[in-house]
Specification:
The complex is a heterodimer of chains A (450) and B (497). Chain A contains 19 helices and twelve strands. Chain A is an alpha/beta fold and 450 residues long. The radius of gyration of chain A is 25 Å and the shape is globular. The chains are: A alpha/beta (450), B mainly alpha (497). The interface between A and B is medium-sized, with 20 and 17 residues.
Chain lengths: 450, 497
């Protein structure tokens, strides 16, 4: 009898250990690119004032920058290519971890939801990090009817098990997302500002396809309201906003009116951004454009909902300062990566408050200042007009900009004055950007292009 | 599929009901479970199996009645019994033939009802046994229906015998941890062979013997044939192990279907170790009746006038050819499987025919026939015959076989095995996994060949060792198994037969 009991106990213990091992293995094999985004949200057990939600357009809102600037805690729970159904699923799962004061939901592509088969990776980014639970099962079943897709989303090891061929060191050591769910975009590509059509009426081709998505949006709003969470709807700026896309916002406008919730449509309002330099592509803001949009959103919710500045709370501040250090260290690392950061990207980074530096452009030989968007990029990088730069562009002279935000230094030089400082221009590359730490002036990265 | 979540959930539920609710009616639980399984597989499946069950049940009872009858014309009764058996065989074999005949399948968009190849032979065997008076006919149609439709054996066999199964179905089975555990181990072993070895080999085979067939060198094609044999053995024996493992959990042992066939030293021995249930069925219901027939005896006597050895070998060879052609056509009615059957029939027949020549050569040349090296030579000779035979299964037509032989002998390009081999879908790591897995498989087979009962020996180890081994096998299958969205789910090869 004792032997039998001992055997049962040992077997039970072995089963438990094996299951723990299996959970560990699932984590090792999981594709980190697809799931790392929300690891911190699930594992840190933090509370947040704001959830940023929507499609990848919302991915540019940087929670760490929001903390640095306003002392508001937030997490970015965007989903690439998602319609309202996936946002509803995300919110349902997220609310089991934290209850925010405000949800800001971007609605720019609200009527479109991809099928799982089109982009399984997008769905995995949404669901993988959340452990199996009743909520997750319900959410997955809401999202897709396909039994194979459900199996894959609920038991992602089914998809990732053959990653033994490509496991790396990073797979064995947890990498938390330094951007708290957001995405960093450094590039700057000039865009054309879309003509403002207005949202007074629905497009002629409006049909019933979007009923399910509309119902999901209503479910999101009602879920928030039933839990005392404030919700604001928004349509972030994007250059590809055509007539149909803009007019579909009419539905959002009506729903916002119906539920008496705030709605801010950036496309329909006077623009706060510069379309020549604030976008990485027609849909997505870069690190130059996103702070401008963030300011508008935060101003609306901070004063609208009385959000506190937690920078004075030592406990919260200590945790978030650690996140800021990790985020800034990651930025420095990216700045040194020549595969990510070239000339234009470096100018975008110069816009960030933690960086200063020097920019040299051999405009006399290259005419670089006449490349569309360059002048706007420079002025946006330092946040002010640059008259010397404009003159150098007109007269075809070389240009040097020195900016040290920490000491308030902003100096411009052009033409022969530069030679006396840097030496003959023949010996210089066509473009040299030195990124420095704004406080210590230590060199973070140097970008040279011929 | 035997390892799908749905099927395993079904088995788990059935298992709980079987052992907890209905001790004296356990066979009813199995019967209901089996037909629920068929209902899930489709209405056509139910129609055919029910039809075969009802027909053969009543015919068997009639046969027994006629056999036991004392009054009336004995010859007339015997004639009637023969006619009944012939009618049943023609009907069932005819239906099977329609589903095996590719042009008919394409013309009428036919879908093979699951298990039809296996239960058709099972019931034909039963009818013949009743005709022979081997045992009494079953009087309860529901018990008979369980024998016909017992679900673990329906996907790819084995072909069971009524007298071996009836006793087990009627016994009361008490839940035993050892029986359950042994069933689980056998199931896991089968799953390992199927998912880690067979389906991995299929990646290479499907590519080289499919799209890349015309472009591949002889060396790559030869590897394709070798890996195909490995794939087929792993797939078939793996599936059988899974089915047997599930059946054992219910306390029912099915007909053994494999006994380390690649340790065979002759092609005849190979077919006594490979797909044993089919081989034994053919032996008992085709080979022996032909071999003991008057025609066979007359032919043997006539040849015996000139040579006693030929009198024994030539009629035997003819019967072998006939039986193996039936085996080939049982797989599919196509030129490829006809050649497959002819090949093995001739090889098995030739074995007996030329055995004296080999013995004479061995004596004259002083070759030792009882040593390990000679045994290896005989095994390799057997493997070569099997490789050629099985290549007919994978090639689309006779012309392709000629192309394959030509490529091997005139365009071998052995060097491609060193660099191009890993560009055919299997990476170096995959090939290493196959190699290590096959080594493990060979080691287990070797131990079984030496008389070891593996599951008993594992059961005799310490608990921690058994737990580690079980956890290890599950982990290996979970990580290295070929399944998931990146792969085409490889159905069982013999599930489509």
């Amino acid at each position: 009898m004792k032997k039998r009991l001992f055997g049962l106990f040992t077997t039970g213990l072995a089963v438990v250990l094996f299951m723990l091992f299996a959970v560990y293995l699932f984590g090792v094999f999981r594709e980190k690119d697809e799931t790392g985004k929300n690891i911190a949200f699930v594992e840190d057990g933090e509370s947040y004032d704001v959830f940023w939600m929507g499609t990848s357009h919302m991915s540019r809102i940087q929670p760490v920058e929001v903390w640095k600037e306003y002392g508001i805690t937030s997490y970015n729970l965007y989903n690439t290519g998602s319609g309202m159904n996936r946002n509803l699923a995300t919110l349902e799962m997220a609310l089991t971890y934290a209850t925010p004061k405000v949800v800001v939901l971007d609605t720019d592509q609200w009527w479109r939801e991809k099928e799982f088969a089109e982009e399984p990776g997008d769905f995995h980014r949404t669901f993988d990090i959340f452990p199996l639970s009743r909520q997750k099962i319900k959410a997955v079943c809401q999202i897709t009817d396909d039994p194979e897709a459900r199996k894959e989303l609920l038991f992602d090891f089914y998809r990732y098990h053959d990653r033994y061929r490509e496991l790396k060191k990073e797979d064995f050591f947890e990498q938390k997302d330094t951007c708290l769910g957001a995405h960093l975009y450094f590039d700057s590509v000039p865009q054309k500002e879309p003509a403002r059509i207005g949202i007074d009426e629905l497009p002629d081709d409006e049909d019933n396809e979007a009923q399910e998505e509309e119902a999901a949006l209503r479910a999101v709003i009602e879920m928030c309201q039933s839990r005392g969470i404030n919700i604001m709807l928004t349509c972030l700026p994007f250059a590809a906003a055509n007539e149909s896309t803009q007019k579909r916002q009419h539905v959002i406008y009506q729903i916002a009116q119906e539920y008496n919730i705030p709605y801010y449509n950036f496309v329909d309002h006077e623009s706060v951004i510069d379309y020549t330099c604030d976008f990485e592509d027609p849909g997505h803001l870069n690190l130059m454009g996103s702070p401008k949009v963030t300011k508008v959103l935060v101003d609306l919710i901070k004063y609208g909902y009385g959000l506190e500045d937690h920078r004075k709370d030592p406990e919260i501040a200590a945790r978030w300062e650690q996140r800021v250090r990790t985020y800034e260290a990651y930025m420095d690392e990216v700045a040194c990566d020549p595969e990510v950061i070239g000339g234009r990207q470096a100018l975008v980074m110069l816009n960030l408050p933690q960086y200063g530096g020097e920019v040299y452009i051999k405009n006399s030989m290259t005419g670089m200042l006449h490349v569309p968007g360059t002048q706007e990029l420079l002025e946006n990088a330092v946040g002010t007009e640059l008259p010397v730069m404009r003159k150098a562009a007109e007269e075809g002279l070389d240009y040097l900009l020195i900016t040290y935000p920490g000491t308030g230094t902003l100096q411009e030089y052009s033409g022969p004055e530069i030679e006396s400082m840097l030496g003959p221009s023949e010996e210089m590359e066509n473009l040299v950007i030195t990124l420095r730490n704004a406080e210590t002036l230590d060199v973070v990265a140097e970008i040279r292009e011929e | 599929m035997l390892y799908s979540v749905g099927f395993l959930t079904f088995v788990a539920v059935l298992f709980i009901i079987y052992y907890s609710l209905a001790k004296r009616r356990q066979w009813v639980v199995l019967l209901l479970g089996s037909y629920l399984f068929y209902a899930f597989m489709g209405r056509a499946c139910i129609v055919f199996i029910l039809g075969a069950t009802v027909l053969t049940f009543f015919v068997a009872r009639k046969l027994e009645t006629l056999r036991l009858q004392k009054e009336g014309d004995r010859k007339a009764r015997k004639r009637a019994r023969k006619l009944l058996v012939a009618a049943v065989v023609v009907i069932l074999a005819g239906i099977l033939a329609v589903f095996k005949f590719q042009p008919a399948v394409e013309r009428f968009s036919l879908i093979l009802p699951i298990g039809i190849s296996y239960y058709s032979f099972q019931v034909i065997g039963y009818i013949i046994d009743i005709y022979r008076g081997a045992y009494p006919a079953e009087q309860n149609i529901f018990r008979y229906a369980l024998f016909v439709g017992y679900f673990p054996g329906m996907i790819q066999g084995p072909i069971n015998r009524y007298d071996k199964m009836r006793e087990q179905f009627m016994q009361e089975h008490t839940l035993s941890w050892e029986v359950f555990r042994n069933g689980v181990w056998l199931f896991l072993w089968g799953l390992f062979k199927k998912l880690v070895i067979a389906d991995r080999c299929a990646i290479y085979v499907n590519h080289v013997m499919g799209d890349a067939f015309g472009k591949s060198s002889g060396s790559l094609l030869l590897m394709g044939v070798i890996l195909f044999v490995l794939q087929m053995y792993g797939d078939f024996s793996g599936g059988i192990d899974m089915a047997e493992g599930i059946s054992e959990m219910f306390g029912i042992r099915m007909y053994q279907n494999f006994r380390q066939p690649f340790f065979s030293q002759s092609i005849g021995e190979f077919w006594r170790r490979w797909h044993i249930s089919l081989g034994n069925w053919i032996r008992d219901y085709v080979f022996y009746p032909l071999a003991f027939s008057k025609t066979y005896r007359k032919l043997s006597k006539w040849i015996g006038r000139w040579n006693a050895h030929l009198a024994d070998s030539i009629p035997s060879m003819l019967v072998s050819v006939i039986t193996f052609v039936i085996i080939g056509l049982w797989h599919a009615i196509s030129p490829a499987y006809l050649i497959y059957g002819l090949w093995y029939g001739v090889m098995v027949g030739m074995q007996k025919l030329i055995a004296p020549a080999f013995q004479y050569l061995a004596v004259r040349t002083g070759v030792r026939t009882e040593c390990v090296s000679y045994r290896m030579f005989r095994r390799m000779r057997t493997w070569l015959i099997v490789l050629i035979g099985e290549s007919f299964c994978i090639l689309p037509c006779a012309g392709a076989f000629v192309q394959l032989v030509r490529a091997i002998f005139t365009d071998f390009r052995y060097y491609e095995l060193f660099y191009d081999f890993f560009e055919q879908g299997l990476t170096r790591l995959d090939f290493l996994i196959v190699a290590v897995s096959v080594l493990i498989w060979w080691a287990v087979s070797f131990l079984k060949e030496q008389g070891h009962h593996m599951r008993e020996e594992i059961a005799a180890q310490n608990l921690w060792c058994r737990l580690l081994l079980t956890a290890g096998v599950i982990t290996v299958i979970a990580i290295f198994g070929i399944y998931g969205p990146g792969y085409d789910a490889a159905a069982f090869i013999y599930g489509g037969i």
